[in-house]
Amino acid sequence: MKKPATSRPSSPISKTRLEFLFDGIFAIAMTILVLEIKVPELSDRHSVAELGQALKHHASVFISYLLSFFMLGMLWYHHNQHFRHLERITKGILFLHLVQLASAAFFPFCAALIGRYATNPLSMVVYIGCIITYRWASTAQWMLAKKSASLSRDLTQAEYRHFRKRNWIVSTLMTGMFLLYLFNTLTK
Amino acid sequence: MKKPATSRPSSPISKTRLEFLFDGIFAIAMTILVLEIKVPELSDRHSVAELGQALKHHASVFISYLLSFFMLGMLWYHHNQHFRHLERITKGILFLHLVQLASAAFFPFCAALIGRYATNPLSMVVYIGCIITYRWASTAQWMLAKKSASLSRDLTQAEYRHFRKRNWIVSTLMTGMFLLYLFNTLTK
Amino acid sequence: MKKPATSRPSSPISKTRLEFLFDGIFAIAMTILVLEIKVPELSDRHSVAELGQALKHHASVFISYLLSFFMLGMLWYHHNQHFRHLERITKGILFLHLVQLASAAFFPFCAALIGRYATNPLSMVVYIGCIITYRWASTAQWMLAKKSASLSRDLTQAEYRHFRKRNWIVSTLMTGMFLLYLFNTLTK
Amino acid sequence: MKKPATSRPSSPISKTRLEFLFDGIFAIAMTILVLEIKVPELSDRHSVAELGQALKHHASVFISYLLSFFMLGMLWYHHNQHFRHLERITKGILFLHLVQLASAAFFPFCAALIGRYATNPLSMVVYIGCIITYRWASTAQWMLAKKSASLSRDLTQAEYRHFRKRNWIVSTLMTGMFLLYLFNTLTK
Prior knowledge:
The structure is a homotetramer of 188-residue chains.
Chain A (H helix, E strand, L loop, with lengths): L14 H18 L15 H10 L1 H25 L7 H26 L4 H27 L9 H31 L1
């Protein structure tokens, strides 16, 4: 591999390996979601009706599985769109990635909580709180990358502003709705 | 890396990373199948006969493990054959991949269910239903890839038709047999 | 990437992806070994003596963890040595790889069994049986690769024979000792 | 890929694959930390107060999760800094890597222990003992790599000394504090 012609310092942390760690943690988080779905206990092993009843009774667990799987898939997609514009991984960016990953790895617990206590507002608070932490880490990362000149030079100023704006809008909207929901929950 | 000579837009989503996520989820699903096999409780820790009895009693769990492992291995092989012909990953293809992956990650639950209630027809319905979902997502993907011009130009029209035909036949046959089985189960 | 100058057909299955699946399953099997080690229940949460006692009582679980981790590490190392000489991955080689991987993924169960019932000869039979299955799949693969002309042409005939011989000796010796042990166990 | 111009023997073990195994095990260890956090049992499924109480009661489990996640993240970062200077992976280096990985894969157990028995000094001993094992394997590796001429020739003698010195200081300091703590714990 040739050194780039310009004098910009190379990435302090291997981009390939961080991508790898990221994809690995997402793959695992998405797969262990299923570990929270327990095989029901039946009194009659052969009864279709009883098994059907037991599975129907756990419907919220299955819905939570699907919802969380696609939520993680969507976050993975967004990371994909952002990460390609990053050229250097600084310590700050690594730290914010770890915050994102800690939220993603925490997802199976959130999914289990909401699957079990779907009607408990606090489950929703924990679940959305986890997504919002992820979002803010992503938003902060984007601005930090700009500040530390770690973005690809192929990204135009207009594109950067577009990404930043969308990031801010989504994160702020989600946080606003979250706080409203939290306020409603606590004062009920 | 040089830009390709033609003007076709580059892949919106990194093919390498999707391949990575796919292989990661398959590796994990195949490995956590084993978590459903529990070490039996023995009254006499040293008794060969009792442990042998306990393991024999769980034979269906072991068979389900092997069956599911090789089933996932086969699906992985088929993905391998298809994926090499994909050149661009569009949002639609990513979505269908997530459907496939959600089915694959759901497999350990299906395997546990069938291992535990091998004689319950509903277990089989869930198990096969999961495979069929995977198959249809794969079939749909193949046609979507054609429509969005995401297939490699090395793939001839005849090869494409061959793949599509085989996909349709397998998916339709499986669905037909599944519906027949479902009908028999529900009316018994 | 340029096509190779010779007319040998290219690998039917992506070597990189199989390597990936292999390493992924090994990484997971090695890590979920730890899931079998349970945090003990204490009557006095603050008691150093009671926790020490509880951990000492589970000593065989920890030994089994270490043993199994390094055993998988050793198998991984051997695969590393063999796999670099493979040039093409045929369906037969993939199948034998899946047999190897099913054994490796089964290891956490074997480790849990032997950690819990260290003094039960049948635990040892299952544990060693799992390793032997792995070994024979590896030996068979080596010969199949030769037969289907899938080995790298850099590998000399003498090197091939050396590998094959070592494979046979280790597999046969292990199987012999295993059968002897099995015979002793069953007739006790 | 061209052979390097010099006559130094090539890496006996694939560096890419070891990196892969390492990142895989770290990704999994970091993700299964969450499996130790159990969804609490509630008498009233809808009660925000009860769920809040239950989660607050398990605060130490959540703190242990975060702490351990970032600890593993830091160890991963350090490996990243060291590994880029390794050019060849010898058997000795592989062995020391396996020691590191066995410690890292053991982390979820340590995290669960300290999350459950935060006030028990022995939990802390196990936790820190695990980190220290990792550190010494890393320090030993660094010196072994020097001795076996496996370090990259881009690394200057001064840089090597700087890394070695820092490694020694951190490992020795941690071990000293650990022994002091151990002594205090055992004589209390």
